[in-house]
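In response to the reviewer comment on reproducibility (Comment 2.3), we provide here a single inverse folding case reported in full, input and output, so that an independent group could reproduce the run without further information from us. The structure tokens appear first.
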């Protein structure tokens, strides 16, 4: 009996381990903005789905085994009661976080976190061949470099945004400039480390500027000529040991609209902003390009 008393209840240990695994899964959902930033959207969605399916059976199994381990250890005077008690407490704490995790899972599984279909299309859809041909001819006509460079918002942004401003001041300037057209436009936030490319209106193509950590606010809109365009305000940072592996991610208004009806509120509270606001801005690139 003395030897038996030195044994540790295997049920307590396994139950505790399963509950710890479920806690890790809950933390993954709680830190979803950070996880998207580190893993990228595609890998995040896959992992979130797997965790979402697994978390309930894993946590319940952990609770059952923890209770069984507590009873067994008490009756047989085995070690491991502390594992069971801590596991049960963690299960209760995890249950408090279960509803937010379930909410995020539903967003992932049913597509609410997928890119919203609110961006303007390249050309309006029409079933009649003759109208389609006319639209294509009109929208594919090349625009002069001045058309892109002299856009009112582009000129305003270039005159009112510079590298000496804080990231928050830049975001606020873009927010204020877009207020009048907000209801008719769509917005995205792109962030991460990548080969950054800017649009050269003279060449009519994107040109590489090298590797940067990018924080880019994009406004997508339809101009008076019926064409679809975007204006990009890109805040660029030098690549370093911290950001070199950050995945490039594009967040759409539809991804966060339930929690942040105003997309710019999301931008100010995003993990990408919290990281970039403390870094030194390398340069700012502002351009207009066709969609």
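Designed residues, in position order:
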């Amino acid at each position: 009996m003395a030897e038996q008393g030195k044994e540790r209840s295997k049920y307590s240990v396994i139950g505790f381990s399963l509950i710890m695994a479920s806690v890790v899964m809950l933390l993954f959902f709680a830190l979803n903005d950070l996880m998207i930033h580190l893993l990228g959207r595609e890998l995040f969605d896959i992992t979130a789905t797997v965790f979402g399916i697994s978390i309930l059976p894993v946590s319940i199994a952990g609770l059952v085994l923890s209770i069984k381990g507590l009873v067994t250890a008490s009756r047989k005077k085995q070690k491991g009661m502390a594992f069971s008690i801590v596991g049960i407490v963690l299960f209760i704490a995890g249950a408090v976080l279960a509803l937010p995790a379930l909410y995020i899972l539903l967003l992932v599984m049913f597509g609410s976190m997928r890119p919203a279909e609110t961006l303007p299309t390249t050309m309006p859809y029409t079933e009649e061949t003759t109208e389609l041909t006319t639209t294509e001819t009109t929208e594919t006509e090349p625009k002069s470099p001045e058309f892109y460079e002299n856009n009112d918002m582009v000129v305003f942004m270039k005159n009112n945004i510079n590298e000496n401003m804080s990231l928050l001041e830049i975001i606020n300037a873009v927010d204020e400039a877009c207020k009048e057209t907000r209801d008719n436009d769509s917005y995205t936030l792109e962030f991460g480390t990548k080969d950054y490319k800017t649009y050269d209106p003279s060449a009519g193509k994107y040109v590489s500027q090298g590797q940067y950590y990018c924080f880019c606010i994009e406004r997508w809109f339809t101009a008076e000529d019926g064409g679809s365009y975007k204006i990009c305000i890109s805040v660029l940072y030098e690549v370093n040991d911290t950001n070199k592996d950050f995945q490039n991610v594009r967040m759409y208004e539809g991804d966060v609209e339930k929690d942040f009806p105003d997309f710019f509120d999301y931008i100010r509270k995003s993990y990408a902003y919290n990281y970039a606001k403390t870094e030194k801005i390398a340069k700012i690139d502002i351009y207009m390009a066709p969609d």
